[in-house]
């Protein structure tokens, strides 16, 4: 018989003082209640109740066992309540892994707005380009720029990243403005090493950090390949200039929210995904 149910029957028999009252409370037959107690006594190899025609009483071992069962059931009920509340109310620590391409003011502002709205959620953020094992490493969610995911995961598309070639005005003054794609072979390139590019520039720096690429471009070192959410503000202010229009060789990856395919998704994960969808939908690329 179900050990946990037998313990619940035992506690109700003691609390209500009879098999009949406990059976009515639990909506089972009196015979079934008696079977649960017999099964429990056989399992613990001890007599728990003194049974007479007039009343029931606990044995010495039964009294100790009863007190321990009350504590165990209360602990279990509290744990179940906490889990149920976690699937309804968003709270707790949200552990996410984000690629370096998303280390931008754009995503920082999204995360800040999320925390402003859901103050009971703490964020634990890891920046890395490798595909972390979400289950083994205990991550709730990952942002990724690939459609390729492992079995058992769900990838929800969020937004497309538009890349641009940009340079500082000082670089253009020194080396000239490329007029077309083929002109790039006469220019120095600063590119991300996580992207497989086939641009005819002379690569002088590659790095996995998009912020570093932008800062190097601002110094006038070369032409940088960057997502528009890192360049548009600087183009508008005149600190960077767009070099040539988009080419078919440019990558325009989609950012996905990747999470484990579970029947019951916790409120903190579900809320974060919905928030990302809401915010990235309003991001209009030029």
From TrEMBL:
- Which InterPro entries does this entry report, sorted A to Z? LysR-type_TF_proteobact-type, LysR_HTH_N, LysR_subst-bd, WH-like_DNA-bd_sf, WH_DNA-bd_sf
Q: Name one Pfam family in it.
A: HTH_1
Any one Gene Ontology MF annotation carried by this entry is: sequence-specific DNA binding
Gene Ontology process terms (BP): DNA-templated transcription
The chain positions of domain HTH lysR-type read 1-59
Name the UniProt key words of this record, in alphabetical order.
Answer: DNA-binding, Transcription, Transcription regulation
Q: Which PANTHER family match?
A: HTH-TYPE TRANSCRIPTIONAL REGULATOR (PTHR30537), TRANSCRIPTIONAL REGULATORY PROTEIN (PTHR30537:SF35)
Q: Which family does it belong to?
A: Belongs to the LysR transcriptional regulatory family.
- Protein known as: LysR family transcriptional regulator
Which species does this protein come from?
A: Pelistega suis
Q: Provide the taxonomic classification.
A: Bacteria, Pseudomonadati, Pseudomonadota, Betaproteobacteria, Burkholderiales
């Amino acid at each position: 018989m179900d050990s946990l149910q037998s313990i619940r029957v035992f506690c109700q028999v003691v609390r209500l003082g009879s098999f009949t009252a406990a059976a009515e409370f639990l909506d089972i037959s009196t015979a079934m209640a008696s079977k649960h107690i017999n099964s429990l006594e056989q399992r613990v190899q001890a007599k728990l109740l003194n049974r007479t025609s007039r009343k029931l009483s606990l044995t010495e071992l039964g009294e100790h066992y009863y007190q321990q069962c009350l504590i165990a059931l209360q602990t279990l009920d509290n744990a179940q309540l906490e889990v149920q509340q976690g699937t309804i109310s968003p709270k707790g620590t949200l552990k996410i892994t984000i690629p370096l391409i998303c280390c931008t003011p754009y995503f920082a502002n999204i995360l800040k707005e999320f925390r402003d709205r859901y103050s009971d959620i703490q964020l634990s953020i890891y920046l890395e380009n490798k595909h972390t094992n979400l289950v083994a490493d205990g991550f709730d969610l990952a942002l990724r720029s690939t459609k390729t995911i492992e079995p058992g995961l769900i990838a929800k598309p969020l937004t497309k990243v538009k890349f641009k070639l940009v340079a500082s005005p000082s670089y253009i003054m020194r080396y000239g403005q490329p007029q077309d794609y083929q002109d790039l072979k006469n220019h120095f390139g600063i590119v991300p090493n996580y992207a497989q590019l086939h641009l005819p520039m002379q690569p002088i720096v590659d790095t996995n950090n998009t912020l570093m690429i932008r800062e190097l471009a601002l110094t006038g070192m070369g032409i940088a390949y960057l997502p528009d959410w890192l360049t548009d503000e600087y183009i508008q202010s005149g600190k960077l200039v767009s070099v040539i229009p988009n080419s078919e060789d440019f990558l325009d990856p989609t950012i996905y929210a990747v999470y484990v395919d579970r029947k019951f998704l916790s409120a903190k994960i579900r809320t974060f995904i919905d928030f990302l969808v809401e915010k990235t939908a309003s991001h209009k690329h030029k």
